[in-house]
Known about the structure:
Largest sheet of chain B: 6 strands, mixed
Number of strands of chain B: 16
Shape of chain B: globular
Strand content of chain B: 15-25%
Largest interface: A-B, 35 and 42 residues
Number of helices of chain B: 15
Structural class of chain A: mainly alpha
Oligomer: heterodimer
Strand order of the largest sheet of chain B: 6-7-8-3-9-10
Helix content of chain B: 40-55%
CATH class of the largest domain in chain B: Alpha Beta
CATH topology of the largest domain in chain B: Rossmann fold
Largest sheet of chain A: 2 strands, antiparallel
Distance between the termini of chain A: 33 Å
Strand order of the largest sheet of chain A: 1-2
Low-confidence stretches of chain A: 1-11, 272-276, 311-316
Amino acid sequence: MVRRFESSLPPRIGANRWDLLAGGLVLAAIALFVVAGHQMRAPMAALDAAPISLEPDRLAGYALRTVVRMAVAMAVSLLFTLVVGTLAARNRRARSILLPLLDVLQSVPVLGYLSFTVVLFLTLFPDSVFGAELAAIFAIFTSQVWNMTFSFYQSLRTVPADLHDAARSLRLSPWQRFWHLDVPFATPGLVWNAMVSISGSWFFVVACEAIAVGAHTVQLPGIGSYVALAIEQRDLAAIGWALAVMLVVIGLTDLLIFGPLVAWSDQFRLGGSRTAVAPKSWMLNVWRRTRLLRNAGAALRRLVGRVTLGHASRRVDRTAAPRLIGGLAGLAYYASLAAIAAAAAWYALHFLTAFEAAEWLHVFALGALTLVRVLVVTALAMLVWVPVGVIIGLQPAWTTRVQPIVQFLAAIPVNLVFPLAVYAIVHLRLNPDIWLSPLIVLGAQWYILFNVIAGTSTIPQDLLEISRNLQVKGWLRWRSVLLPGVAPYAITGALTAWGGAWNATIVAEVVYWGDQRLVAHGLGAYIAVNTEAGDFARIALGVAVMCVYVVVFNRLMWRPLYDAAERRFRLD
Amino acid sequence: MDPNTAMPDEPLLQVSKLCKTFEKASGELLVLDDIDLNVRSGEIVGLLGRSGSGKSTLLRSIAGLLSPSSGTVHFQGQPIDGPAEGISLVFQSFALFPWLTVLENVSLGLRAMGVHGDEARRRSLAAIDLIGLDGFESAYPRELSGGMQQRVGFARALVVDPVLMLMDEPFSALDVLTAETLRTDFLDLWTEGRTQIRSVILVTHNIEEAVFLCDRIIVLAAHPGRVQADITIDLPHPRDRLSAPFSQAVEEVYAILTARPAATTRSAEPATARHIRHVSVNVMAGLLETMAAAPYHGRGDLPVVAHELQLELDELFSAAEGLQLLGLAELARGDIALTPAGLEYADAGTQQRKAIFRALALRNVALVAHILGVLQTRPQGRAPRVRFEAELEDHLSEQYARETLDTAIEWGRYAEVYEYDDDSQSLLLEQPETASAPAPPSPS
């Protein structure tokens, strides 16, 4: 075990053979960031000088650039999560505004952010790749951050009261409590959500890297731009290469980063919820066998320990805050909040009233069309993946093997199946309004499968055994044991899939293969088409209407459904 | 047995006029009402009371984890307004950090105080040694049994050299044997004066444990928590549970707990809105059967019965009070005696029992009769749960209203006075058996 108390003997500094392996990996990662960082600061002209090429041997370099972008976005997401999640959990006033705000922000489609921020970043850094890089990283960030923040917030709100009291009575300062109680407790959930987020950002990587907003068209070197070019030039071989490289990259991230992280974070689970079979990671064992790196790690940990613990900021933790001051501050806070909200509303109204009522009706009608599409495909995905998930979940041996596969399937960018969709629809003379719909759940459907597999493994063995003992079989078994057992999980999965599906409508309602373009009628297509045209007022209108649909249905449909499932089918 | 040097007369801890209210959606809930308590050097003080007596709230106020709504707590002459140096806490749930080893758990408090490196290690190892955990320094809590985990909890509390040690039911999550070993070990540390601790406050709902460990027992009455009695236990340690003075002390505490609170506190409420503590029909029936059978023959000593049935204080008293409310038993001075109806119930079969219960519930439990009355006036014979809950909340806190109604529903269902539908959250009149009877079993 690595987490031994610092021994009083001086540590042996020398390297061993495991250091060679792990050290090589660390050096490579550092070199990668240095090179990529250098290229990010290149002048804009450098992009035109070296346009994206479909040569397969360029793919490794592109993949690394994409990985660096995702890593930077992940670091920013983590920082955002720690700060905003903590604010929302700890401060009642901040919570009252942050939670609804986060709820709306997560329902804004990734491309919605891109259209607005790209102009900003390009103006901030004209003539440099840096602006475009920032825009891409920001878009990737918006595809990663929300579920991580919600997970962290949720963890902070559920830290066991006794542990919290113990930390306070040991007189840990708030800063110490944060690092020694809150963060460790939230770590398993955060690691899991980071994995899901990485899949999500692969799904949108094409849109984020090959930026086409009105007059601004930038193709940043990366897998996403490669795929975009391959589609434009109808190069099936290139699509195949891109898919293969993605498979390798995702596999490597899983092996080198997430595998060790999941195994390492298992120690932060509380007794009861610890997974029955502790996750293992070959790579984590390598890390643990290294000597030089481990000593470096221990030194780093001591340093972190100093920062997080050393300075017992002598600020004593008081139980009561003076009421009057608190009250006045609250008043000022809410007053300024109301002022900001009023200003924003006035501005938005000003912006949106430019449209005729007919345009509004038209966009809401398109929204209704997309709503029907999303609901139907989510329901169909449930119909397929709930039974499959239950069957897989009942076989513990399969469960662990299926997970990385599903993780990979969820990461496949929707653009990669465009050739297939266009070919099928054109040759079979299908109606795009109906047959483009499956693309909407392409990435999102896997969340249902994920959750149902997880849910099935929580059905108590006792219940399964008694139903076998009573000879409960066939449909009766599904109806009375299996489906109720996974209901809360299936609904959570469906809710996630639903959110993902809305997000995907923008990239899935308009598909193209070379110069062939298929457009379905819907809100996603409306936003996508106006993004290409650079009509910002209409993009805003479309995004606003989409937010309304998502938020309203979350409140009116999913929340009650979820609560009902929790109440009726909870197993504890 | 006083492990300390002579101290000035000033008490170590002074709680004066302490009140604590919690804000609830339906208003304020008074949990502690005007508590006065002094703890002197050299004593173990037990806080004994049933759930709802606010004993944990009082302990957390002393620990500086909760701030009182009014009143003060002084420790060594200083007012407490946050976790104070010199006060340690031991938890019922152990509250260990699962991601830290035993040694790291124990040293965390030291490191938070700014004690680092070898000094922290030396002191932590000493505390681990003292509590008998040597050899487990590098283990994680999940590798340890409950008893060992609680030893880590003790070591963590001891390592910072506390003057006052607060314990929140530290033995109640352990099995009987482990708890007894840990109690004795702690008592040895205390009587031999091997720690800096000058006083201990122990929250418990186990009467025997309180008499075994404490020099003084503060009995708290429930809703709201008030000091009901302050009993000095003047027996030398180690105490013999089988000795006559020990049993006498236990009897005395039981007698205080069964004394009916002055009726004046309740007179404002109508009979239909009186708080009923939740107790399941099964537990009541079990207690009745035991009381009716051999050694007791209808009358017994509560401590003896509690010991035989292995019932927690709360369960025992809730069951006994339930029986008393229904008219199946009488409580007085630590004794319980079955009424003729109680004896008849114990002898009867299932259906007859229900009939007896039904008659008694309708006669003696005003709320059950009231619910039936309301349902009979409704054309559909159905009324939503909230209707009754709102009515109860005029007189009781939200929590007590819910508990009271839940109990009335359970009793009424058992007695087949009315039914309850959880999906629609409504009460309805008992329906005659419908066609939903299960299919007859097929012959095998």
